[in-house]
Design a protein that fits this description.
The chain has 404 residues and is α/β, with parallel strands linked by helices. Helix content is 19%, strand content 30%. A 7-stranded mixed beta sheet has the order 1-17-19-20-16-12-15, sandwiched between helices. The protein starts with a strand and ends with a strand. A hairpin with a 2-residue loop joins strand 19 and strand 20. Helix 1 crosses helix 7, helix 4 runs parallel beside helix 7 and helix 5 crosses helix 6. The chain has 4 domains: 161 residues, MoaB/Mog-like domain (Molybdenum Cofactor Biosythetic Enzyme, Chain A, 3-Layer(aba) Sandwich); 58 residues, Molybdopterin biosynthesis moea protein, domain 2 (Alpha-Beta Complex), CATH 3.90.105; 80 residues, Molybdopterin biosynthesis moea protein, domain 3 (Molybdopterin biosynthesis moeA protein, domain 3, Beta Complex); 73 residues, Beta-clip, CATH 2.40.340. It binds ligand LQZAQKY5 and molybdate ion. The site of ligand LQZAQKY5 has 26 residues, from helix 7.
Length: 404
């Protein structure tokens, strides 16, 4: 059964079960997906603190201080970061204070060291304007009970730091989906084998394992199988703890295109076996015991596009993400796209900004067995179905990939 891309995406996304969560050391959490909604159990900063090295004092007393009309005060305390004040300030006094140290009671401002002259215990304030602004108030960033970061958020550097602020040393994150990869084809040899006539190296498993990792999942490389139903089924059955099973090759209609037969033999319910996109038209999807099986084309570019359009959203949803589509923008073709398009087509491309224009052009030849153009691509041009050749200057829709 051949289906439209959007239908295929819906079928698969509706079958996704979100992974369970696990606790992981915060140091290992970068790019994991947060599995809990985190609220603040404290105010932050936890105390009024100084943003400067200088003198804490009563701001009103120095507001008019100038080099010609300085205000002289007595230093009565020294408060390092990590320390606590021993006393409060009063008119005529100031406390030497370091950046990050708690403000002494009664102080309403801080004057930076550069605007003072220090002589023993005496400090002369040369400029006190704005001293009252130099305070970071308790709770100005976070307040007790506030929702700080929600379940499903990707843990970027900012989230890592914030979880540390909150003492979340082992936050809950979603387990990474485990994705089994099998390369099928009697012509396929492992990457470290010398080439012999008729054979080619397995590039798909490596390309796809990178795509799997980028989608936040974990690859289990099950190896290569020749065009043999038993051999392919055996490999797929060998990884019962995986959540998604991907094969490449054998997805089309040739005598050795066996993935349909493999699904029958294994009792996998076929959901569809063709999707109307180019490249990547031959692609099987099936389900058995809640596990998703995808039979991608052997052609590298076709496998990569099928993964991008069908598998990536599934893995993103399974990983606990709340959104799984990449950003799309409009851009203007800087080079013509000369092919007529039947089924919706995805073209590896480079996109860049010139002044206020966003331009895009194919990143190289686009054969379905070719990979060079994928190497330098930071975008995919989406060419709608039944499009004529497109001249320079045509506005096109572009999917932004991670930068390359
Ligand atoms: N009569 C028809 N023939 C073909 C059709 C069709 O509709 N009717 N569709 C074509 C399209 S489109 C594609 S795409 C391919 C899909 O073929 P398969 O998915 O069955 O893949 P294979 O035939 O096994 O391999 C295709 C190609 O890719 C190479 N390959 C396979 N595995 C790997 C790997 N792991 N690493 C690198 N390269 C790999 C393989 O050697 C072939 O050259 O079918 C068309 N034919
Ligand atoms: O549909 Mo094939 O996947 O042209 O490349």
């Amino acid at each position: 059964m051949s289906v439209k891309l959007e239908i295929a995406q819906d079928i698969l996304l509706n079958l996704v079960t979100v992974m369970l969560t696990e606790r992981v050391a915060l140091s290992e959490c970068w790019r994991r997906i947060l599995g809990e909604t985190v609220r603040s159990d404290m105010d932050f900063p936890p105390f009024d603190r100084s943003p400067l090295d200088g003198y804490a004092l009563i701001a009103e007393e120095v507001v008019n201080a100038t080099p010609e009309n300085p205000v002289c005060l007595k230093q009565i305390d020294y408060i390092p970061a990590g320390g606590t004040p021993n006393t409060s300030v009063s008119f005529g006094t100031a406390c030497r204070i370091m950046t990050g140290a708690p403000l002494p009671p009664v102080a309403t401002g801080v004057v930076r060291l550069e605007d003072t002259i220090v002589n023993g215990d005496n400090v002369t304030i040369l400029d006190g304007r704005g001293a009252d602004k130099n305070i970071c108030f308790r709770g100005e960033e976070l307040f007790t009970g506030e929702e700080i970061v929600s379940e499903g958020t990707i843990i970027n550097a900012g989230v890592m730091g914030m979880l540390a602020v909150l003492g979340k040393s082992r936050p809950y994150v979603f387990r990474k989906p485990r994705v089994a990869l099998v390369a099928t084809g009697s012509e396929i040899i492992p990457v470290d084998f010398p080439l012999v006539p008729g054979k080619i190296r397995n590039s798909n498993s490596y390309m796809l394992s990178a795509q799997v990792a980028e989608a936040g999942a974990q690859t289990i490389l099950l190896g290569n199988a020749s065009d043999n139903v038993d051999e392919i089924s055996h490999l797929l059955e060998s990884a019962s703890d995986c959540d998604v099973f991907i094969t490449t090759g054998g997805a089309s209609v040739g005598d050795y295109d066996l993935i349909g037969e493999v699904y029958k033999k294994m009792g996998i319910t076929l959901l569809f076996d063709r999707v109307s996109i180019k490249p990547g038209m031959p692609v099987l999807a099936g389900i058995r015991d809640g596990k998703i099986y995808l039979g991608l084309s052997g052609n590298p570019a076709a496998a990569a596009i099928s993964f991008e359009q069908l598998v990536r959203p599934v893995l993103m949803k399974m990983s606990g993400r709340k959104t799984w589509w990449r950003p799309r923008i409009k851009a203007v073709l800087a080079a013509p796209f000369k092919k007529k398009t039947g089924a919706k087509r995805f073209v590896w491309a480079r996109c860049w900004q010139t002044g206020t224009d966003i331009l895009v052009e194919p990143s190289g030849a686009q054969g379905n067995g070719m990979l060079k153009s994928a190497m330098g691509a930071n975008a995919l041009i989406v060419i709608p179905e039944n499009s004529p050749p497109l001249p320079i200057g045509t506005e096109v829709e572009v999917i932004l990939l991670a930068d390359a």
